[in-house]
Amino acid sequence: MNISKKILFLFSLVVLVLPSVIYASYLGAYGAPISFNNIVFNLEGTMWIAFCAIVVICFVVAAILFLTSMGNAEKVSQARSAFIWGIAGVVVGILAYSITTIIGKIL
User: Fold this and answer.
1) In sequence order, what are the residues at sequence separation of 6 or more whose Cβ sits closer than 8 angstroms to the Cβ of residue 40?
2) Is residue 69 a contact partner of residue 79, using CB atoms and an 8 Å limit?
3) How far is CA 9 from CA 13, 14, 16, 17, in A?
C-alpha cells in the first residue's frame, strides 16, 4: 500500500468518524439536544482545522522533495508538481470554505 492510499484511507476514516465525535462532545459539554445547524457549524470548523493540517503536511512533503532532489531534473519536476498541486488544493479549500460561509450567512 503506497503512501497516497494510506493518506486517503486516514482521511476517509476521519471524515466518517468525525461527525459522531463532534456530536458526542457537544452533547457531553451541554447535555442538551442539538440542531442541525450546530452540527454543521462544528463540523465545518473541525474540517477547516483538518484541512490546514493537511496543507501544512503537503507543503512539508513538497519541501522535502525539493531538498532531496539533489539537482536531478526529474525529481525537481516532481517536487514542483507537488508544490503546484498543493497550491491548487489550498485555492479549492479556501473557495469551498468561503462558499459554505456565504451560503450559511444567506440562509
Assistant:
1) 104
2) yes
3) 6, 9, 11, 12
Count of helices and strands (H, E) across the chain: 3, 0
Give me the mean pLDDT over the 36-62 stretch: 81
Following CA atoms 43, 49, 53, 58 in sequence, which dihedral angle do they give, to the nearest 10 degrees? 70
pLDDT for residue 22 is more than 70: no
Residue 77, classified by CB atoms within 10 Å of its CB into exposed (0-12), middle (13-18) or buried (19+), is: exposed
Q: Output the pLDDT for position 84.
A: 92
pLDDT, mean of residues 51-61? 88
Average pLDDT over residues 94-102: 85
**Are the C-beta atoms of 17 and 46 separated by less than 8 Å?**
no
Grid cell of 97 as nine digits: 470554505
